[in-house]
Design a protein that fits this description.
Layout lengths: L1 H25 L3 H9 L5 H5 L6 E6 L2 E6 L2 H12 L6 E2 L7 E7 L2 E9 L9 E6 L2 E6 H10 L9
Antiparallel strand pairs: 1-2, 1-4, 3-7, 4-5, 5-6, 6-7
Length: 157
Protein backbone atom coordinates (compact mmCIF):
# COMPACT_ATOMS: atom_id res chain seq x y z
CA UNK A 1 0.00 0.00 0.00
CA UNK A 2 2.86 2.40 0.85
CA UNK A 3 4.60 1.71 -2.49
CA UNK A 4 1.40 2.61 -4.33
CA UNK A 5 1.20 6.01 -2.58
CA UNK A 6 4.85 6.82 -3.32
CA UNK A 7 4.43 5.87 -6.97
CA UNK A 8 1.26 7.95 -7.22
CA UNK A 9 2.97 10.96 -5.61
CA UNK A 10 5.90 10.68 -8.02
CA UNK A 11 3.55 10.53 -10.98
CA UNK A 12 1.66 13.62 -9.80
CA UNK A 13 4.93 15.46 -9.19
CA UNK A 14 6.14 14.51 -12.68
CA UNK A 15 2.91 15.72 -14.28
CA UNK A 16 2.99 18.98 -12.32
CA UNK A 17 6.57 19.69 -13.35
CA UNK A 18 6.00 18.85 -17.00
CA UNK A 19 2.71 20.77 -17.04
CA UNK A 20 4.29 23.85 -15.47
CA UNK A 21 7.14 23.74 -17.98
CA UNK A 22 4.67 23.57 -20.87
CA UNK A 23 2.68 26.52 -19.54
CA UNK A 24 5.83 28.61 -19.12
CA UNK A 25 7.10 27.72 -22.60
CA UNK A 26 3.79 28.72 -24.16
CA UNK A 27 4.28 32.31 -22.99
CA UNK A 28 6.21 34.26 -25.64
CA UNK A 29 7.78 36.48 -22.97
CA UNK A 30 9.29 33.70 -20.82
CA UNK A 31 12.71 33.72 -22.44
CA UNK A 32 12.81 37.51 -22.47
CA UNK A 33 11.93 37.62 -18.73
CA UNK A 34 14.61 35.04 -17.97
CA UNK A 35 17.12 37.08 -19.97
CA UNK A 36 16.02 40.31 -18.33
CA UNK A 37 16.75 38.97 -14.86
CA UNK A 38 20.44 39.05 -15.69
CA UNK A 39 21.19 42.00 -17.95
CA UNK A 40 18.01 42.98 -19.77
CA UNK A 41 17.69 44.00 -23.38
CA UNK A 42 19.81 46.50 -25.27
CA UNK A 43 17.70 48.94 -27.31
CA UNK A 44 20.54 51.12 -28.67
CA UNK A 45 19.52 50.58 -32.27
CA UNK A 46 15.85 51.33 -31.64
CA UNK A 47 16.61 54.42 -29.56
CA UNK A 48 18.99 55.80 -32.20
CA UNK A 49 15.92 56.57 -34.37
CA UNK A 50 14.82 59.25 -31.90
CA UNK A 51 17.55 61.60 -33.12
CA UNK A 52 16.02 61.78 -36.63
CA UNK A 53 12.79 63.42 -35.44
CA UNK A 54 11.85 66.95 -36.40
CA UNK A 55 8.96 67.07 -33.94
CA UNK A 56 7.65 65.23 -30.90
CA UNK A 57 3.98 64.89 -30.07
CA UNK A 58 3.44 64.81 -26.29
CA UNK A 59 0.36 62.83 -25.26
CA UNK A 60 -1.50 62.00 -22.05
CA UNK A 61 -4.43 59.57 -21.97
CA UNK A 62 -4.33 59.35 -25.78
CA UNK A 63 -4.84 63.11 -26.12
CA UNK A 64 -2.28 65.46 -27.58
CA UNK A 65 -0.97 67.86 -24.92
CA UNK A 66 1.55 69.73 -27.07
CA UNK A 67 3.87 69.38 -30.04
CA UNK A 68 7.55 70.09 -29.60
CA UNK A 69 9.46 71.32 -32.65
CA UNK A 70 12.35 73.08 -30.92
CA UNK A 71 15.49 71.06 -31.78
CA UNK A 72 17.09 71.47 -28.35
CA UNK A 73 13.94 70.18 -26.61
CA UNK A 74 13.69 67.25 -29.03
CA UNK A 75 17.34 66.41 -28.31
CA UNK A 76 16.68 66.63 -24.55
CA UNK A 77 13.75 64.20 -24.77
CA UNK A 78 15.72 61.78 -26.96
CA UNK A 79 18.79 62.05 -24.70
CA UNK A 80 16.85 60.87 -21.64
CA UNK A 81 16.14 57.56 -23.36
CA UNK A 82 19.43 57.27 -25.26
CA UNK A 83 21.39 57.58 -21.98
CA UNK A 84 19.75 54.29 -20.93
CA UNK A 85 20.18 51.88 -23.87
CA UNK A 86 20.63 48.75 -21.75
CA UNK A 87 18.69 46.85 -19.05
CA UNK A 88 15.25 47.13 -20.67
CA UNK A 89 12.75 44.57 -19.38
CA UNK A 90 10.09 43.23 -21.74
CA UNK A 91 6.60 43.00 -20.30
CA UNK A 92 3.18 43.40 -21.87
CA UNK A 93 1.00 46.28 -20.80
CA UNK A 94 3.41 49.16 -20.14
CA UNK A 95 1.40 52.34 -19.63
CA UNK A 96 3.04 55.75 -19.40
CA UNK A 97 1.82 58.93 -17.78
CA UNK A 98 3.12 60.82 -20.82
CA UNK A 99 3.88 59.41 -24.26
CA UNK A 100 6.33 61.06 -26.64
CA UNK A 101 5.75 60.23 -30.31
CA UNK A 102 8.85 61.03 -32.36
CA UNK A 103 7.95 62.10 -35.89
CA UNK A 104 10.03 62.97 -38.95
CA UNK A 105 7.83 64.95 -41.35
CA UNK A 106 4.73 62.70 -41.37
CA UNK A 107 6.48 59.43 -40.48
CA UNK A 108 6.28 58.11 -36.93
CA UNK A 109 9.73 56.94 -35.85
CA UNK A 110 9.07 55.69 -32.33
CA UNK A 111 6.96 56.18 -29.25
CA UNK A 112 8.43 56.33 -25.74
CA UNK A 113 7.01 57.24 -22.37
CA UNK A 114 7.64 58.37 -18.81
CA UNK A 115 5.81 57.35 -15.68
CA UNK A 116 6.17 58.10 -12.00
CA UNK A 117 5.07 54.64 -10.87
CA UNK A 118 7.67 51.91 -10.56
CA UNK A 119 7.29 48.36 -9.28
CA UNK A 120 7.90 48.34 -5.53
CA UNK A 121 6.86 51.98 -5.09
CA UNK A 122 10.41 53.36 -4.73
CA UNK A 123 9.93 57.17 -4.67
CA UNK A 124 13.51 57.81 -5.87
CA UNK A 125 12.80 55.98 -9.15
CA UNK A 126 10.57 56.68 -12.13
CA UNK A 127 10.00 54.56 -15.21
CA UNK A 128 10.76 55.05 -18.88
CA UNK A 129 9.19 52.89 -21.55
CA UNK A 130 9.60 51.97 -25.19
CA UNK A 131 6.90 49.76 -26.69
CA UNK A 132 6.60 46.71 -24.44
CA UNK A 133 9.88 47.49 -22.65
CA UNK A 134 10.47 49.51 -19.52
CA UNK A 135 13.17 50.28 -17.00
CA UNK A 136 13.34 52.23 -13.76
CA UNK A 137 15.65 55.24 -13.71
CA UNK A 138 16.32 58.18 -11.40
CA UNK A 139 13.14 60.14 -10.63
CA UNK A 140 15.21 63.33 -10.74
CA UNK A 141 16.11 62.71 -14.41
CA UNK A 142 12.49 62.28 -15.40
CA UNK A 143 11.30 65.22 -13.28
CA UNK A 144 13.94 67.45 -14.89
CA UNK A 145 12.65 66.64 -18.37
CA UNK A 146 9.01 67.07 -17.29
CA UNK A 147 9.85 70.47 -15.79
CA UNK A 148 11.70 71.54 -18.94
CA UNK A 149 8.62 70.70 -21.01
CA UNK A 150 6.26 72.29 -18.43
CA UNK A 151 4.42 69.01 -17.87
CA UNK A 152 2.47 68.44 -14.67
CA UNK A 153 4.73 66.08 -12.71
CA UNK A 154 4.16 63.72 -11.09
CA UNK A 155 0.97 63.19 -12.99
CA UNK A 156 -1.30 61.01 -10.88
CA UNK A 157 -3.96 59.28 -12.94
Amino acid sequence: MMMFRIATCRQWAFFLIVGSALVLCSCDRTLEWVGAVSSGNNLSEELSRLGRANRVVVMHDEKTITEVSDKSSIRAIAALFQRHPQHWVAISGVFADYDFVFVNNDTELASVGISKDVPGGDESRSRISYGDYYQPISAAEVASLANRLALKWPNHR
